[in-house]
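User: Design a sequence. Structure:
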């Protein structure tokens, strides 16, 4: 695409020519994922969301994109830039939050845990089939009684000869009811430190029950897990996961993707609301001609421009090895909060039509609630930034 052609892209949707910050490869990937989401996901997702079912038929099609594993290089993974990996999350969220999180859990949380904390053998065994999406991963940290205070998880791992025996409970675990491998974070009874354990599908003592009645990310399957004398080989302990610090490395490196997720939800909401405001007539005019509607649209746009630029910069810093925990938390915190405001404004602009699934804004409105809370709630990410700028921790 020439410079002139790029400048000709719809200025109302790319107000600051964000497009020009991307490499040709990043733009190609973004366009490919966007086209895939429009073609394969958008036509079917409302029905799955309403029935609270996951569209398993999409897994082989997603695999065909060759994007699973994101920034991981080698082991059959695509070795993308952080910007490209973030754009995937944004493009997925732009159409559907459930698919975005399903993908983020296996490609981000599960694969990163193995990549950052696994031995060479563990990486060789698990990353190639996960990258091909022949196997799907899950990441089990949160517990019924331990959410934000994640370093104090209570699930235990007891060493018995050549095995570890896991006991405890996990909550909210995406993909866990069907995943081939679940990274279970548990406290080693010997060292008292948090470690990661690979629990393979069908292991006796592992039981996952899908959580029902969610109002957000309904097409994503989240599960309650019970671990009852769940015995796994010693070889399934993640070799380099020896304290919660190692878990935190994984989380800081996936959090930037959630910041991009916020961008995607916000862009979709703005685009839908802008188009609607140009078409919907009231008082004999398009509602977009009213000052109060324009103000809402401009507020949305101002936040989106800031979100895009912050998140792009964060990703460049990550690739340069300069990203701090606080920077990653700031982007996640702010983008999720702003996306929440933007989808609400879009919902308002669509009036009654905004609460109907068929107009594709109600799903974003509901799904952003989960983005606001997971991968560190708004409050916890605020406190991570607070700790970095003051040098004082306001939480344990
Ligand atoms: C759709 C969805 C998918 C998820 N997927 C996964 C997954 O795949 N794997 C996984 O391990 N977890 C997953 N989670 C769990 C998620 O990470 C937790 O919900 C999150 O960490 C918050 O924990 P909690 O819900 O227990 O809230 P709590 O920790 O109980 O917090 C309740 C409220 O108190 C606030 N709060 C807590 N501590 C403080 C403090 N010190 N100061 C100020 N405010 C505070 C919180 O911000 C929040 O507003 C998922 C959650 C959802 C909703």
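Assistant: Done.
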């Amino acid at each position: 695409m020439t410079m002139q052609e790029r400048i000709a892209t719809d200025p109302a949707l790319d107000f600051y020519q964000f497009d020009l910050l991307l490499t040709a490869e990043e733009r190609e990937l973004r366009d490919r994922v966007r086209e895939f989401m429009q073609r394969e996901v958008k036509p079917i997702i409302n029905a799955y969301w309403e029935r609270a079912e996951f569209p398993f038929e999409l897994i082989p099609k997603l695999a065909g994109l060759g994007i699973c594993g994101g920034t991981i290089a080698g082991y059959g993974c695509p070795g993308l830039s952080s910007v490209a990996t973030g754009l995937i999350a944004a493009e997925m969220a732009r159409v559907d939050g459930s698919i975005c999180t399903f993908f983020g859990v296996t490609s981000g949380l599960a694969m990163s845990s193995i990549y950052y904390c696994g031995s060479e053998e563990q990486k060789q065994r698990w990353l190639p089939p996960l990258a091909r999406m022949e196997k799907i991963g899950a990441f089990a940290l949160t517990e019924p009684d331990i959410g934000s205070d994640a370093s104090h998880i209570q699930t235990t791992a007891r060493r018995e000869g050549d095995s570890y025996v896991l006991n405890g409970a996990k909550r909210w675990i995406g993909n866990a009811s069907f995943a081939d491998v679940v990274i279970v974070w548990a406290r080693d009874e010997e060292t008292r430190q948090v470690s990661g354990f690979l629990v393979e599908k069908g292991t006796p003592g592992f039981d996952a029950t899908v959580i029902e009645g969610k109002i957000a990310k309904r097409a994503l399957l989240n599960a309650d897990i019970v671990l009852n004398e769940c015995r796994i080989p010693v070889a399934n302990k993640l070799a380099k996961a020896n304290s919660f610090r190692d878990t935190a490395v994984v989380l800081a490196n996936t959090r930037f993707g959630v910041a991009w997720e916020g961008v995607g939800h916000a862009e979709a909401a703005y685009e839908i609301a802008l188009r609607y405001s140009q078409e919907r007539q009231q008082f004999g005019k398009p509602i977009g001609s009213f000052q109060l509607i324009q103000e809402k649209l401009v507020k949305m746009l101002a936040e989106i421009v800031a979100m895009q630029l912050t998140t792009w910069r964060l990703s460049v810093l990550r690739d340069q090895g300069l990203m701090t925990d606080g920077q990653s938390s700031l982007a996640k915190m702010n983008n999720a909060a702003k996306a929440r405001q933007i989808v609400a404004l879009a919902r308002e602009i669509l009036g009654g039509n905004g609460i109907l699934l068929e107009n594709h804004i109600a799903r974003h409105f509901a799904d952003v609630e989960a983005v606001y809370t997971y991968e560190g709630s708004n409050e916890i990410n605020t406190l991570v930034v607070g700790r970095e700028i003051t040098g004082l921790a306001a939480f344990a």
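The CA atoms of residues 138 and 182 lie 5 Å apart. The two ends are 51 Å apart (CA to CA).
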